[in-house]
Amino acid sequence: MGVSSDGNERRRFGDHGRLAKSKNEGVHFPSSLLRIFIGILFRSYIRLPIGYIGGIFMSSIAKWIHEVPGLKNRDRLLSVLHTLGVATREQLEVVTGWSSNKVKNLLKEIRDQFPIPEYHRQQKQLLEQAKKSNSLTEIEVQQLEMKVTRDIAKIEKGRNSWVTILQPEGQRGGSFYTLGKNGIVLAKEIRREYVENTSKLKPKTQTTHFYGVNEILCRLRKLNIVENDWLSAGEVMQDLHYYWNQDHKGKGIPYRPDCLLQLDEDKYYGEFDTGSESNGRLRNRFKNCLTLYRDIDDPKWERLPKEIIWVCTNTKRKERIEQIAKEVLQDFMKKNRGNIRIPTVYCFVEGDDTRFLLGELEAVPFWG
Fold this sequence. Notes:
Helix content: 40-55%
Order of helices and strands: EEEEHHHEHHHHEEHHEHEEHEHEH
Mean pLDDT: 82
Number of strands: 12
Shape: elongated
Low-confidence stretches: 1-56
Strand content: 5-15%
Distance between the termini: 13 Å
Strand order of the largest sheet: 8-9-10-11-12
Structural class: alpha+beta
Radius of gyration: 25 Å
Number of helices: 13
Largest sheet: 5 strands, mixed
């Protein structure tokens, strides 16, 4: 447990992955070790799917792989990718539990919903033969090359409308995958969600952000830690809309978390910071977070996670985030007298969040 400034032991909501005390003997043990052992034992010998241990329901993302009947593997992968937003192939392998070849072939199967026309294959063969045999003039070869190139661009555009492959330079993870417009429509139909006239594509410039958010989940999965639930930003907002609009209809929700993670009974909002946001935007995010917890009405606020985990890429950024958050809280408290609900919020350099959840790292929150 963390220690507050007055030297008293700071209690946190829940005890998943924290030091749990035996009522009989006063012995401390990390509860996560038992969960890891059970997870390995059950999946190795009893072959239960990820997300189901001792009668625990599967998480919202795991159910698409193991629980929903009658779906093709292609459709299961579509649903998972829709939840993750943008993901690497390795992340898809970790979340689905499938082999690299299986994920690779299923991605190709989805993209093949836009087939390569036969005439395009014929023209490519004709071009290859012409270059070898000199059966066409130089101008004719150039014209055929231009036509083949234009066709390739059209075909790639059609295939990207199902699954788009992104290859940003200098970013971790290699190639990224995200659903195109047709892929989003099909995924929403599979999930029985409302299909808008214009499906919103995930921003191609935010691959680093999506990668960081997904890694919060993937680091746990790689250690055989089974989440009870995982919600993407969009799914979190659906829940918040339900609670918020009952009393604040027409007023926008002030705070949008990146994800929700549930381990045992403990729920956490998750935030991943790439380091690109200015100090002003950080201040607004922290202010909006406090506004949500202040304004949401009883007893609905009881259903919100009482803890939030921020994850960033380096120690310097962590210190900056904590400094700004404390300044925002101080200003907020001056303007809002009385009993204000303040969530317990921690900030970690990526990887330390996993150690914290496993009970291997003690941490003091910057709020709460």
